[in-house]
Amino acid sequence: MVKVEFHIRPIELKDLDHITGACWENRQTQIRLLELQEILGFGAWEGYDCVGQLHCYSVTLPQWDDSNFPGYGRANPVSWPLGWPLLAAKEKGLKFDKPVWAHACFHVGWTLGSPSADPKYFGRGIGTEMLKASIQWAREHDYAGIIAHGGTKVAPAYNVWMGCLPWTTYASIGFQCVTMEEDGKGLPWWTKNEEQPELMAQVREAINAGHSYDELCSRLMLLRF
After folding, report:
1. Distance CA 68, CA 74 (A)
2. Residue 129 falls inside a structural domain
3. Which domain holds residue 69?
4. How far apart are CA 111 and CA 20, in angstroms?
5. Residue 122 in contact with residue 41, Cβ under 8 Å?
6. Model pTM score
7. Distance of alpha carbon 127 from its chain centroid, rounded?
8. What pLDDT is stored for residue 1 in this prediction?
9. Which residues does 106 contact at the CB level (< 8 Å), separation at least 6?
10. Would you call 27 helix, strand, or coil by DSSP?
11. Within a 13 Å sphere around the CA of 150, how many CA atoms are in the beta-carbon half?
């Protein structure tokens, strides 16, 4: 097993030429977000290489401004890791008197210029460490809490494809489950995504092994401060 040494810090203006630009519309959007919320999220660095990113957004609930969200996230919210949690939060009537720090995309193993994620960075705790850094930062900057998209443990390819952490990771450090897809009573839409053969194979394997629908469903995870 290859040992990976990394350190976590916020993604700031000085980092824009050293990170992959996936999931942001353009440089102008990045600049606007930096002006609004100080940072774009968190990066994991191995030397001078950014090997992991967590994209974050300052949002208000129950209404939010989506002008700085990626286009595909506005057009089809469930295809973006922050989209469904926001819709679910609104449906559940979550309200806060201060902004909430919201987790969007986790990208581990994508370095600047790389065509795909390097699996040697998987399973090293990079996502969890970025999550912990984000919690500390949000507490220090007077946010009301954090909302996030908690993925499934039984189909890990979904978490890689969607860009999220398993809900159990959030639960292990104090997040509460507010709701889950389909109320846990049916299979979520992505279990029929034939464009992701590895994911579909894991879904079929989980069902054949007797896993219940709720074990496949994503969850809206919430940490109140």
Report:
1. 9
2. yes
3. 7-224
4. 7
5. no
6. 0.93
7. 9
8. 47
9. 52, 53, 54, 81, 127, 130, 159, 163, 164, 165
10. helix
11. 27
